[in-house]
């Protein structure tokens, strides 16, 4: 009973969403707190689960287990106690009325997000209603649960209760979606499948490169040219091979001239109708101006980098455009295979031909990388809508109910009455779990969700989800053969991965389009020569969408994209910058530091800060100083230095517990702590308003330019009587040109980079 009581106490402190996440992954999203205890809690829940199964064993063994469990529970409660706000801190919070409102906002936000520690309030009632469901489930054995879930078609592959993670296999639909055993239906055939002269898909995939061209692409630099398009702006075309025909933007697009697969010609205008209401030109009935120019590049099978994606304005337009392109590619590829199946079936016995090479070494053709489950949910809904010709002809979607349950979100779990910027609400809408992967198989009029990777046409995954499958060198169980024949790679919202873990993206790029280690039952007589020659990366199209230009994102596009057709990058320069959105009267001092190389700028910035900047703020008169630090590694370095120098400071990062955040904000507001070290990732995931700032130091320019104005505008939360003492200092180097231009504009950036003197700007609030 002690074990069951401890389990109930633990479960009452978690919301439905947290319980589900802990069961599946043993950890929580960085959007939430309690980071360091997540894995421990997950393991403890797992241990409790198995302990419930052994309650019917003999008394002697039960007594011995209970003795050892007492020690474990007590140790666990000690750890859990560190996650709770101490009575002392709670009493201190009640002392200051000016901070109580901010603390209540923080507490209410955390509680509404599922971190109730007492089980009180609306969130507590929801948790109490959820606890009996968990306890009832504990009476079943693991074998009964597993057999029941398999009978219901439930995925047990990602459940830690069932041991190692294995990909779910939809056995009952395997034959229905097999490309090898199905044939083309006449009414669903692609009318342009055999027209090599006009079909972009055929032109791109049937092009036979020579070894000289491959060697040329591997050794010679790319040549580039510029072009100005009406909607996209300045485009940079680059290619290593011979100069291709100049690509021009189409003023008007006829759906029939795009060589779309047959059903898409009729479904696309209906699906995209929601974005056309604000379009002035009624003649173009299928694309917005942005979609028209983007799809023109996509349909030419060039690589594309678009760094102006905005979750509020054009995010869904872009998502619809690349879903159309990806689905069109898959349908054409599968139609070619099914058509050749019929030809091989009808050929005369004894005849052998090599004309039916239409496959890769593995089946997956499209890989979509998105940050959250909500993004995957929207993509699947778009794909389904594009396949449904009308309301009467609904396509058959297997495992749809299960998909909605795992990738959907509960509207009641959304925290009410939270004041956050609109872009924050748009990015973190719906299910924000960032550990997932799902295979999608499409065959004519049917879609199969949760298909095994080697039976999938499209794989939708997060960087973390795909990283756990690829594994690391030396691990026994790792797999990346399914990435060998990817023909279209779509990386959407790449800027968010900078806030998650960019190493996962780099790890993916190193393992894509490699020769598989196993044949996986492929018919080598049907494999294209480009795949057998290991030239697939030169045919792969990469579509990269981001909200900003960043050196790390640019590096992926420049160093990991080898498309023989070429690359297209949008390179528009900002003319005003986010500094124009600062509404408080504040002097901005931009201090330039010198560095010999981009690798030495990290140490140069640290030395410049402790030698030139920090001494000016050591005086007590320069209290209430917030230091904004984009890099977590720089944050750790400064924190250690401040501790070594015994400076009066506090700190907040993405791993700081809720109680510590409340204390740090209170101490900083009262002036009990002179400095506050503040990380960019914490601001990205929380967007708290920090009160009491009088002096602001940007240790490095922010990744998101609008964060600059957001942090500066926090000063208006302080009493207006001390306006004259406000200061803002920004550190930058010549390697921060892109970030600097996004903050101050391109004209000022050019002047600041030419001059080695400090630049003083004064924003009146009217700019």
Automatic annotation (TrEMBL):
Chief location bin: nucleus
Disordered: annotated segments: 58-142, 149-168, 339-359
Entries under SUPFAM superfamilies matching the protein: P-loop containing nucleoside triphosphate hydrolases
Pfam families on file: Utp25_C (PF06862), UTP25_NTPase-like (PF22916)
Keyword GTP-binding annotated: no
Gene Ontology CC: small-subunit processome
Species this chain originates from: Horornis vulcanius
Protein name: U3 small nucleolar RNA-associated protein 25 homolog
Compositional bias ranges of the Acidic residues kind: 89-125
Cited InterPro entries: P-loop_NTPase, UTP25, UTP25_C, UTP25_NTPase-like
Function statement: Component of the ribosomal small subunit processome for the biogenesis of ribosomes, functions in pre-ribosomal RNA (pre-rRNA) processing. Essential for embryonic development in part through the regulation of p53 pathway. Controls the expansion growth of digestive organs and liver. Also involved in the sympathetic neuronal development. Mediates, with CAPN3, the proteasome-independent degradation of p53/TP53.
Entry keyword set: Developmental protein, Nucleus, Phosphoprotein
Subcellular location: Nucleus, Nucleolus
Keyword Phosphoprotein: yes
Domain of life of the source: Eukaryota
Subunit structure: Interacts with CAPN3; the interaction is required for CAPN3 translocation to the nucleolus.
GO biological process: maturation of SSU-rRNA from tricistronic rRNA transcript (SSU-rRNA, 5.8S rRNA, LSU-rRNA)
Family: Belongs to the UTP25 family.
Basic and acidic residues biased stretches: 158-168, 348-359
MF annotations from Gene Ontology: rRNA binding; U3 snoRNA binding
Location of the UTP25 C-terminal domain: 578-762
Domain UTP25 NTP hydrolase-like: 301-568
């Amino acid at each position: 009973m002690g074990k069951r009581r401890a389990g109930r106490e633990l479960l009452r402190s978690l919301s439905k969403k947290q319980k589900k996440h802990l069961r599946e992954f043993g950890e929580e999203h960085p959007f939430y707190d309690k980071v360091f205890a997540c894995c421990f809690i997950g393991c403890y829940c797992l241990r409790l689960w198995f302990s419930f199964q052994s309650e019917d064993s003999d008394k002697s063994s039960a007594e011995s287990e209970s003795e050892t469990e007492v020690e474990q529970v007590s140790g666990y409660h000690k750890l859990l106690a560190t996650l709770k706000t101490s009575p002392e801190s709670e009493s201190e919070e009640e002392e200051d009325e000016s901070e109580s409102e901010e603390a209540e906002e923080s507490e209410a936000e955390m509680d509404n997000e599922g971190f109730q520690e007492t089980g009180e309030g609306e969130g507590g009632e929801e948790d109490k209603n959820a606890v009996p469901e968990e306890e009832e489930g504990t009476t079943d054995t693991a074998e009964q649960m597993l057999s029941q879930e398999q009978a219901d078609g439930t995925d047990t592959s990602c459940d830690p209760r069932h041991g190692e993670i294995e990909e779910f296999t939809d056995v009952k639909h395997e034959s229905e979606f097999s490309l090898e055993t199905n044939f083309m239906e006449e009414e669903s055939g692609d009318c342009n499948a055999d027209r090599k002269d006009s079909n972009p898909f055929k032109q791109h995939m049937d092009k036979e490169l020579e070894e000289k061209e491959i060697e040329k692409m591997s050794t010679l630099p790319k040549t580039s040219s510029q072009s100005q398009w009406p909607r996209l702006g300045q485009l940079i075309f680059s290619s290593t091979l011979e100069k291709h025909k100049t690509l021009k933007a189409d003023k008007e697009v006829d759906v029939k001239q795009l060589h779309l697969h047959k059903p898409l010609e009729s479904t696309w205008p209906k699906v995209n109708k929601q974005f056309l209401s604000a379009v002035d030109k009624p003649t173009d009935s299928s694309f917005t101006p942005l979609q028209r120019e983007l799809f023109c590049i996509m349909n030419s099978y060039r690589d594309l980098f678009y760094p102006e994606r905005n979750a509020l304005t054009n995010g869904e337009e872009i998502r619809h455009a690349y879903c159309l392109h990806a689905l069109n590619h898959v349908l054409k590829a599968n139609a070619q295979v099914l058509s050749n199946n019929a030809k091989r079936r009808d050929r005369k016995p004894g005849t052998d031909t090599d004309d039916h090479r239409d496959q890769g070494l593995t089946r997956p053709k499209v890989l979509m990388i998105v940050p959250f489950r909500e993004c995957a949910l929207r993509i699947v809904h778009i794909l389904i809508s594009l396949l449904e010709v009308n309301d009467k002809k609904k396509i058959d979607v297997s495992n749809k109910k299960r998909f909605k349950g795992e990738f959907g979100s509960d509207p009641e779990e959304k925290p009410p009455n939270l004041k956050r910027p609109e872009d924050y609400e748009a990015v973190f809408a719906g299910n924000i779990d960032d550990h997932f992967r799902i295979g999608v198989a499409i065959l004519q009029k049917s879609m199969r969700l949760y298909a095994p990777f080697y039976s999938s046409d499209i794989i939708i995954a997060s960087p973390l989800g795909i990283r756990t499958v690829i594994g690391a060198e030396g691990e026994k169980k790792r797999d990346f053969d399914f990435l060998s024949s990817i023909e279209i790679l779509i990386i959407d919202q790449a800027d968010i991965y900078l806030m998650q873990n960019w190493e996962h993206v780099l790890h993916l790029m190193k393992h894509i389009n490699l020769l598989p280690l196993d044949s996986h039952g492929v018919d080598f007589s049907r494999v294209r020569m480009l795949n057998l020659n290991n030239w697939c990366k030169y045919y792969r199209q990469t579509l990269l969408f981001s909200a900003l230009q960043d050196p790390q994102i640019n590096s992926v596009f420049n160093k990991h994209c080898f498309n023989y057709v070429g690359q297209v990058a949008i390179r528009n320069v900002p003319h005003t910058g986010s500094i124009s959105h600062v509404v408080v009267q504040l002097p901005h001092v931009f201090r330039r530091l010198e560095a010999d190389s981009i690798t030495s700028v990290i140490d140069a910035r640290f030395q410049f800060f402790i030698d030139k900047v920090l001494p000016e703020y050591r005086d007590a008169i320069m209290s209430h100083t917030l230091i904004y630090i984009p890099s977590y590694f720089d944050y750790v370095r400064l924190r250690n230095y401040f501790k070594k120098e015994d400076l009066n400071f506090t700190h907040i990062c993405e791993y700081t517990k809720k109680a510590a955040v409340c204390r740090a904000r209170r101490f900083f507001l009262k002036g009990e702590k002179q400095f506050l070290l503040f990380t960019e990732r914490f601001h990205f995931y929380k967007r708290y308003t920090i009160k009491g700032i009088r002096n602001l130091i940007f240790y490095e320019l922010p990744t998101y330019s609008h964060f600059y104005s957001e942090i500066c505008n926090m000063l208006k939360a302080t009493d207006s009587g001390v306006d004259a003492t406000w200061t803002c200092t920004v550190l930058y180097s010549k390697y921060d040109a892109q970030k600097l231009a996004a903050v101050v504009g391109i004209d000022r950036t050019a002047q600041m980079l030419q001059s080695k003197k400090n630049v003083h700007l004064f924003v009146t609030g009217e700019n």
